Amino acid sequence: MIEARELTKRYGDTTAMHSLSFTIAPGTVTGFLGPNGAGKSTTMRMIMGLDRPTSGTVTVNGKPYRQHRSPLREVGGLLEASAVHPGRSARSHLREGVQWVRQLVRALAAEGRTVFLSSHLMSEMSQTADHLLVIGRGHIIAAGPVQQVIDSVAGGAVRVRSPRAGELAAALAADGATVTSPEAGMLDVSGTTAALPDSLTQCSHTGWDATAATPASASSAISTSRSTHDS
To answer: Mind spelling out the 3-state secondary structure of the chain?
Structure first.
C-alpha cells in the first residue's frame, strides 16, 4: 500500500506539489494521469525516496522508503522512459510493449501487489487501470474507479482557459470534441471522454501545460501556461 498525507514539495519559490493526500490500495492497478509539469514524476520520486518532501509524508507498506530495512524487497520502480531493452527495435517496443505492460501490471495486481502506473493518456488507462488519480499543477483534481471518473465528464462539459485557445480548440475538435468559446481565451468542451485529456497532453508536448480537467458545471476551470518546471 502507498499512502501520502499532505505531501508538499517546493523548489525555491516554485511549489510543485500542494498538500497531496491519497491511498493506493494493494490488489489494484491505479493510473496516475496528468500532463507534463503536473507533478507525476515528483510524486513518484518522493515515493521512491529519491526526493524529500518539503512537508507531509509518503509511505510504502507503512514506512517511508528510506526506513525499510530492505527497501528493494518492498518496492520497485521504473522512472525513466529511456530504460528500454537494448536488444529490441523501436518497432518491436511499439508493437509489443503496451500489451506486455498491460499484462504485467494486471498479473502483479492479481498477486495482491500495489501497482501505481503513470501515464498521459486516459484512453490507455481506461484499458489498464482499476482506479485513476488525476493530477494538475500539483493538485489532485479527480480520483476514483475508472468508470466513475470517465462518467463524471461523459456528456458534460469542461472549461478551459488558455492564451492559445484557438490552437487548443482545433486540437480538441480534431479529436471529436464539441468546442464553444463563451469569451476570449476560454473554451467549453463537451462530447468526448477521452479526447480532452489526450489533446491537452499534445499541447503539453509543444510547451503548454494544463492543470485540470473537471466539469464546467462545478464552476471549475483548466488553465494552460508555459511550463516552468518539468515534473
So the answer is: CEEEEEEEEEECCEEEEEEEEEEECCCEEEEEECCCCCCHHHHHHHHCCCCCCCEEEEEECCECHHHCCCHHHCCCCCCCCCCCCCCCCHHHHHHHHHHHHHHHHHHHHHCCCEEEEEECCHHHHHHHCCEEEEEECCEEEEEEEHHHHHHHHCCCEEEEECCCHHHHHHHHHHCCCEEEEEECCEEEEECCCCHHHHHHHHHHHCCEEECCCCEHHHCCCEEEEECCCCC
Per-residue pLDDT of the chain (231 residues; tens, 9 = 90+): 999 999 999 999 988 899 999 999 999 999 998 888 888 999 999 999 999 999 999 999 999 999 999 998 999 888 876 666 677 777 776 777 788 889 999 999 999 999 999 988 888 888 899 999 988 888 888 899 998 887 765 555 677 777 778 888 888 888 777 888 888 887 777 765 444 555 554 454 444 444 434 444 433 333 333 333 334
pTM for the whole structure? 0.67
